[in-house]
Inverse folding.
């Protein structure tokens, strides 16, 4: 985790003030969109059940790929401001679609919840959505500024970039651990990660 964070910080240090400002705005916009989407996902019992069912149909490698694509999408926010500019982004057909975004946002919420308090997953499935809502409202839904307020006036660069760096580092480490073939003591990390992202292993049905 420390090496990944150091690599990202090194990349950030190469940005000019204007590029850093643009990056901050881009990340803020993406984060705000993800927060709104996750709020909608948790507020809809039907969508929550459908998304959880979709996760349940994915194998462990497919879930890892889902996180990897989210990681690449997040890293693109950073590399597009580097010099020389990176290759153009992948075509839309390979981008994460809405169902994939919903799935990875819910999956990462599960990981975050399990890390701090695994007890919600001991409850019956019917209580999962409510438990996720409580965790999300307490730890993630902290945007106190409206979307029309200038970013510089309401939130500092560190407030935006630090959570972004932590998210990228967490996804990076998980993908690396789950994709490794052994050695370096990563088996234990991979086992722990596979347990977390394997949580949606229940039979669910969409409810109205």
């Amino acid at each position: 985790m420390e090496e990944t964070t150091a690599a990202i910080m090194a990349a950030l240090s190469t940005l000019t003030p204007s590029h850093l400002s643009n990056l901050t705005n881009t990340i803020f916009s993406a984060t705000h969109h993800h927060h709104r989407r996750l709020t909608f996902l948790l507020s809809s019992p039907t969508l929550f059940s459908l998304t959880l069912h979709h996760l349940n149909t994915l194998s462990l490698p497919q879930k890892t790929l889902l996180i990897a694509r989210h990681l690449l999408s997040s890293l693109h926010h950073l590399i597009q401001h580097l010099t020389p500019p990176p290759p153009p982004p992948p075509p839309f057909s390979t981008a994460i679609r809405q169902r994939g975004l919903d799935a990875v946002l819910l999956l990462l919420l599960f990981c975050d919840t399990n890390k701090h308090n695994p007890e919600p997953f001991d409850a019956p499935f019917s209580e999962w959505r409510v438990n996720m809502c409580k965790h999300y409202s307490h730890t993630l839904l902290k945007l106190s500024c409206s979307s029309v307020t200038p970013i510089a006036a309401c939130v500092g660069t560190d407030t935006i970039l630090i959570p972004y760096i932590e998210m990228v580092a967490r996804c990076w480490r998980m993908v690396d651990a789950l994709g490794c073939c052994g050695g370096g003591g990563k088996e234990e990390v991979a086992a722990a990660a596979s347990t977390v992202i394997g949580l949606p292993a229940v039979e669910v049905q969409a409810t109205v």
About this structure: The chain is about 70% helix and 0% strand. The mean pLDDT is 73.
